[in-house]
Description:
By secondary structure, the protein is mainly α. The protein contains seven helices and no strands. Helix 1 (10-31) packs antiparallel against helix 2 (36-55).
Amino acid sequence: MFELLGFTDLTSTFWNILAYIGMIVVIVAVVSKKLRDHFFVLGSLILTLYAWFFLHNQLLTALQLIITVSSILNLLKIKNGASLIVGILSAITYILLIISGSIAGFWCLIGSFGLLAICWGFIELPKKRSFAIMAAGGILIILYSGALAIWTWFALNVIFCLVNIIKLLRTKKGGEKSEN
């Protein structure tokens, strides 16, 4: 059981605990309007460090950085132009990932679409569709991480996806139902 969660030695235990903390912070951000912007920035930064230093996965790192930028734009309340900024950053990042060979194969393409969907969902917050977009992105990440046996990322995104589906079902059309 502990090996499946990524706890195989001291180094993996440290990084996987950090990743679980990062995802818990992101989940709190999804369900809490009050803490959302700050926690999305913190959680996405933690997951960026995990993807780069532990997983050594350029695709997850690059796209997690896009999510971090989206989170910072939300934190700073920059709505005008945010989609354009993230779109340009995504295009540049995608081109660089393709040139570097990081998006090679079907599963990497699926994973990259998943992270882009989650990023797009962040920009759409607090609209109801943002939770659907993030849930769809989570499903793609679940498929990607399962195919590549990145079990920590798999488990984290199962929870992330479920929380977004629950939030979607509890949200009125157009935006938040209530303060959390």
